[in-house]
Design brief:
The complex is a heterodimer of chains A (375) and B (144). Chain A folds into three domains: 24-155, no CATH class; 172-285, no CATH class; 293-362, no CATH class. Chain A is 61% helix and 6% strand. Chain A contains 17 helices and six strands. In chain A, strands 4-3-5-6 form a four-stranded mixed sheet, with helices on one face. A two-stranded antiparallel sheet of chain A has the order 1-2. In chain A, strand 3, helix 15 (302-314) and strand 4 form a beta-alpha-beta unit. The chains are: A mainly alpha (375), B alpha+beta (144).
C-alpha cells in the first residue's frame, strides 16, 4: 500500500469516527437516566448526611487526603455544600435548570469523593462517571420541568436529539466496568479456580444459615467443587454482559442477565448504590430513536384499552406511538408487524419496568414476533 | 463543541479509563479500575501504643480520652483484633491501616505518652498460609 493510500484510509477512518460521534440521536435514554440519577445521588449522600445530623463530618475521624493542596472547607460550608447537593440532585431529577443542577451535583459529588481515599468505592466512581456524562449531554430537553415550563410559555420545544458522543462514551464506560471486573477475575488464578468465591461463601455461612434456604442448598453453595464451576460462570457472565451489550442480537439477553446478576449481588453483598445504579444505566442501551414503533389497539376491547394505557404510562423511553386501530397490533421500526398475544408481549418487553419479566415470554412468540432490525 | 474537541474528549476518556484499569493491577486503592470482590483475603492486627518508656499498650481500652473505634470508623478498620475480610483486597486494606496508624498518631494531641503506634498484622491472602508483618506510625514528639 502506498503512503497516499494509507493517508486516505486514515482520513476515511477519522471521518467515520467523527460522523459516529456527531451523529444526532435521541437523548431520551439519558434524560430517563438523569431522572433516576437524582434519587441515586441522594442514596449515595445519605451516610454523609447522617454523619452531619449527628454532628460528625469526615475529618472528625481517620481520613486520608489524596493531595495536601486539595482545598478543605470550613465545617459549616462543607455541610451546606452537602445539602446543596441534595437540592441540586432533586432539581436534576425533575429537570429544573437541568444543566446547572447536573453540573452542581457532579461538582459536589466529585469534590466530596476526592476529599479522602476512604471515600472512594467502585460504586461511587461509577456514579461520578454517570454524572459527568449527564452533565455534558443536553438531556434536559424532555422529561423535565424545563421542557414543561417552555411549553407553558408557548415556546417551541427544543430538539431532543443531539450529537451521540456522550451516549457512546457512557456505553463504553458501562461495558468497560463489566469487562474490567471480569478480566481481573479471569487473570487471577485464585478467582478462576474458585478459591475466592468458595472462601467468601464459607465466611458468609452464618449469614446464609439465617436465610430461608434449605440445608441441601447451603451444602451445595459451600461445596468446593461447586465453586470450581461457579467462579467460571461468574466470570463468563461479566464478560458476556460487557460484550453482549454491544451486539444487536445479544443485547436483550445481556440486559436481562445483567439485571439478574445485579439482583443476585444486591441480596448477597453490601455494594451501596452499585446495583441500582448499574441497572438504571442499562437504559442507555435502548436504540436512540423515539416513537418509531406503533402499537394499535381496538378501542372497543377493554383489555386492549388497558394495555394501551399501560404502554402509554410506562413507555419512558418513548418507543411507541399508541394509536387506535382495528385490532391489537405492533408495527416494528422495520415495518414488520405482529398481533394478538405476541404484540402485547412484544410491547411489554420494550418497556423499562416490564422488560425483564416479558423478555423471556418473547421466546414463546418467537415465530410471530415482528422482524427486527436495530442499530 | 468543535469536531476536534469532541474527538479529543472521547479519545482522552477511553485512554484514561483503560489506563486506570491497567493501573489497578499495581495500585493499592485501584481508583476507577473496577476490580469487584477481588480477593477472599482476611486480616487481623494487634495494635498497640508504644510509649516513651517502652511499654506496649493495646489500643482497645480508650486512652487520654480517645478510642480507636471513634477515631477510625471507616474501611473495615474498627476492631482490628478481630479477623476481617479485606473488602477491596489486602494491599488496599494494609494501605488504609498504615494511613490510619499515621493519622491517629498525628491527631491525638492529648496523648502525651505514646511514642508511636504499632500494628502486628496477620494476613491470609486467599488460601495462602498466614503472613505476619509489623507496621508503625511515624514517631511522635512526647513529653518526658
Amino acid at each position: 500500500m502506498t503512503a497516499t493510500a494509507v493517508r486516505r484510509a486514515r482520513r476515511g477512518a477519522i471521518a467515520r469516527f467523527d460522523e459516529l460521534l456527531g451523529r444526532p440521536v435521541s437523548m431520551r435514554a439519558l434524560a430517563l437516566l438523569r431522572v433516576f440519577a437524582g434519587p441515586i445521588v441522594l442514596l449515595h449522600l445519605r451516610p454523609f448526611l447522617d454523619g452531619t445530623l449527628h454532628g460528625r463530618i469526615y475529618r472528625d475521624a481517620f481520613y486520608e487526603p489524596y493531595a495536601a493542596w486539595y482545598p478543605e472547607l470550613p465545617r459549616a460550608v462543607y455541610i451546606g455544600l452537602l445539602w446543596l447537593a441534595v437540592a441540586s440532585a432533586v432539581a436534576m431529577s425533575i429537570g429544573l435548570l437541568t444543566r446547572v443542577a447536573t453540573a452542581a451535583t457532579l461538582a459536589i459529588v466529585a469534590y466530596n469523593l476526592f476529599l479522602s481515599t476512604t471515600h472512594f468505592h467502585n460504586n461511587r466512581a461509577y456514579l461520578l462517571i454517570v454524572l459527568a456524562l449527564l452533565a455534558v449531554a443536553p438531556c434536559g430537553r424532555e422529561l423535565s420541568a424545563d421542557a414543561w415550563l417552555r411549553r407553558r410559555r408557548g415556546l417551541p420545544p427544543l430538539d431532543p436529539s443531539a450529537p451521540a458522543w456522550p451516549l457512546w462514551l457512557l456505553r463504553f464506560e458501562c461495558s468497560a466496568i463489566y469487562a474490567a471486573s471480569g478480566m481481573s477475575k479471569l487473570l487471577d488464578p485464585n478467582w478462576f479456580g474458585g478459591t475466592v468465591s468458595w472462601q467468601r461463601t464459607l465466611e458468609s455461612r452464618p449469614q446464609l444459615e439465617s436465610w430461608p434456604i434449605p440445608h441441601w442448598a447451603i451444602s451445595v453453595l459451600t461445596n468446593r467443587d461447586f465453586h470450581t464451576g461457579a467462579a467460571k460462570a461468574i466470570i463468563l457472565t461479566e464478560l458476556f454482559i460487557a460484550a453482549g451489550l454491544w451486539r444487536r442480537r445479544t443485547r436483550y439477553v445481556a440486559v436481562w442477565v445483567a439485571v439478574a446478576f445485579h439482583a443476585g449481588i444486591q441480596v448477597s453483598a453490601s455494594v451501596e448504590i452499585f446495583s441500582v445504579l448499574a441497572v438504571a444505566v442499562l437504559v442507555i442501551w435502548a436504540v436512540p430513536s423515539t416513537r418509531d414503533r406503533v402499537l394499535r389497539f381496538d378501542v372497543a376491547d377493554a383489555r386492549q384499552r388497558r394495555l394501551a394505557r399501560v404502554v402509554r404510562a410506562l413507555d419512558w423511553l418513548a418507543r411507541f406511538r399508541v394509536e387506535p386501530g382495528a385490532r391489537l397490533e405492533v408495527v416494528d421500526r422495520d415495518g414488520g408487524s405482529c398481533g394478538g398475544g405476541a404484540a402485547a408481549v412484544f410491547a411489554l418487553s420494550r418497556l423499562p419496568l416490564t422488560a425483564w419479566f416479558a423478555l423471556p415470554l418473547t421466546l414463546l412468540y418467537r415465530r410471530s414476533a415482528p422482524s427486527r432490525r436495530e442499530s | 463543541m468543535t469536531i476536534v474537541g469532541r474527538r479529543a474528549i472521547v479519545v482522552a476518556v477511553v485512554v484514561l479509563q483503560l489506563g486506570f484499569v491497567a493501573r489497578g493491577y499495581s495500585s493499592a486503592h485501584k481508583e476507577f479500575a473496577f476490580q469487584m470482590f477481588p480477593e477472599s483475603s482476611t486480616w487481623r492486627a494487634d495494635v498497640v501504643r508504644v510509649t516513651a518508656d517502652g511499654r506496649r499498650v493495646p489500643i482497645e481500652p480508650s486512652w487520654s480520652g480517645y478510642s480507636w473505634d471513634a477515631l477510625v470508623r471507616d474501611r473495615g478498620l474498627q476492631d482490628p483484633a478481630l479477623r476481617h475480610h479485606a473488602d477491596a483486597g489486602l494491599a488496599n486494606q494494609l494501605a488504609f491501616l498504615q494511613a490510619a496508624l499515621d493519622w491517629v498518631a498525628a491527631n491525638t494531641p492529648r496523648d502525651r505518652e505514646t511514642r508511636y503506634l504499632e500494628a502486628r498484622v496477620t494476613t491470609w491472602h486467599d488460601a495462602d498460609a498466614p503472613r505476619v508483618r509489623v507496621m508503625r506510625s511515624p514517631a511522635r514528639e512526647v513529653a518526658r
